[in-house]
Task: inverse folding
């Protein structure tokens, strides 16, 4: 029997797989941005005059792309690096990041802008215009420049409306004599929100558009790889773990192409490993993590009772094999073999080869399993089968339903 002291000691002494888990938190701004070099280059082209000839022009760029495609983080990294470069040139260039999901009226945005610049403007009783004018004067007196990002700008468009957007994008039309000290980055998920503006404002917004494509599996692998070194202890996360997450989320593999979901899955997998006191993160931990991020198990559980007996047996074979191997995928031929053995065990005549493939196709269509044709690293081409749901829980459910079906007979 373990004494209470033993239990506590083991909890306290157990080392975590994490070296620095904050590296996987959504707000962490990484040093490097794999596969966003192009977007950074475009931003550099648009805003370089802020360094080469400060005050001459006010620039605007619009970043558009789906969820988790790196818009926010690219803007932040760009701002951080521009600030460093400016300092080396003796220019006081600030970076201001405002989330319009939080600050969605013109008044709120302008107040937040003044706050982040640190301008001592008495906000109470002033209109947004008055605050902006006071701010512009402050920037002039202190010789400050700023790149202002308005993130989740769709919300601002919806709530603040066309005139407010117009005020911001045409700011210097009103104050022509002033040096152009503010430039803007707008971020939106969907360009459709921009099309709702009146044509004059719209064409101003669309002058420089930087597009963020959904990430492909290989790109997600590189992103996860660059976080792994900082987040985990050496040797606790193997490539196949990263590859598996990247394959589930990659847009070229039917995923959402969302880096946030991929990084969160890695964090949760690490936490699952810690929870068990394991020294390595395994594919089983990833499955557990993914079923949190995408709760497939509930949906699958609803489908199981409607499957035919032999479909269930094929599924059971895949689950047993995946469990035994501890690998992300197994080959369809191996599943068929396992299925035949299973049939023998319970005295069932196994279905023919073509029928088994038909079952696999069906299971795939229903979203119970994932099947894809093997690529690099496998000899010949074969179908690989994978299951995201936690296998233990799934196996238990399958067994119960098989038992029931056998009894009814
Ligand atoms: N190229 C990349 N390199 C490293 N990390 C990245 C990269 N792209 C995205 N990330 C990380 O993925 C997560 C999601 O990225 P980000 O928040 O920038 O997405 P987004 O496009 O702003 O999504 P949303 O539209 O949901 O706001 C963040 O943790 C971010 O640091
Ligand atoms: Mg964002």
Result:
């Amino acid at each position: 029997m373990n004494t209470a002291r033993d239990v506590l000691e083991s909890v306290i002494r157990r080392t975590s797989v994490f070296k620095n888990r904050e590296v996987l938190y959504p707000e962490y701004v990484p040093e490097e941005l794999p596969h966003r070099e192009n977007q950074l280059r475009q931003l550099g082209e648009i805003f370089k005059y802020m360094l080469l000839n400060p005050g001459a022009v006010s620039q605007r760029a619009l970043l558009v792309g789906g969820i988790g495609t790196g818009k926010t983080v690219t803007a932040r990294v760009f701002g951080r690096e521009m600030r460093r470069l400016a300092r080396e040139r003796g220019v006081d260039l600030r970076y201001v990041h405002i989330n319009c999901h939080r600050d969605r009226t013109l008044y709120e945005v302008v107040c937040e802008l003044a706050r982040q610049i640190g301008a001592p403007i008495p906000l109470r009783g002033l209109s947004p215009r008055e605050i902006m004018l006071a701010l512009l004067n402050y920037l002039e007196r202190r010789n400050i420049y700023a790149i202002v990002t308005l993130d989740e700008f769709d919300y601002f468009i919806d709530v603040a409306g066309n005139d407010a957007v117009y005020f911001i994008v045409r700011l210097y039309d009103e104050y022509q004599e002033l040096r152009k000290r503010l430039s803007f980055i707008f971020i939106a998920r969907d360009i459709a929100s921009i099309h709702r503006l009146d044509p004059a404002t719209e064409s101003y917004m669309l002058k420089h558009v930087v597009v963020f494509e959904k990430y492909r599996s290989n790109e997600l692998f590189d992103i996860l790889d660059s976080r792994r070194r900082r987040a985990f202890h050496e040797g606790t996360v193997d490539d196949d773990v990263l590859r598996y997450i990247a394959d589930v989320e990659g847009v070229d593999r039917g995923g959402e192409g969302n880096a946030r979901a991929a990084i969160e899955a890695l964090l949760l997998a690490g936490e699952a490993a810690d929870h068990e006191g394991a020294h390595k993160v395994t594919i089983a931990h990833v499955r557990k993590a993914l079923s949190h991020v995408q709760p497939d198990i509930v949906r699958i559980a609803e489908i199981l009772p409607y499957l035919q007996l032999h479909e269930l047996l094929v599924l059971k074979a895949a689950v047993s094999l995946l469990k035994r191997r501890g690998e992300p995928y197994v080959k369809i031929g191996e599943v068929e073999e396992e299925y035949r053995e299973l049939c023998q065990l319970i005295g069932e005549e196994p279905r023919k080869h073509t029928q088994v493939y038909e079952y696999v196709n069906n299971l795939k269509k229903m979203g119970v399993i994932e099947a894809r044709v093997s690529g690099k690293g496998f000899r010949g081409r074969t179908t690989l089968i994978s299951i995201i749901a936690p296998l233990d829980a799934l196996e238990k459910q399958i067994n119960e339903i098989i038992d029931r079906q056998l009894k009814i007979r």
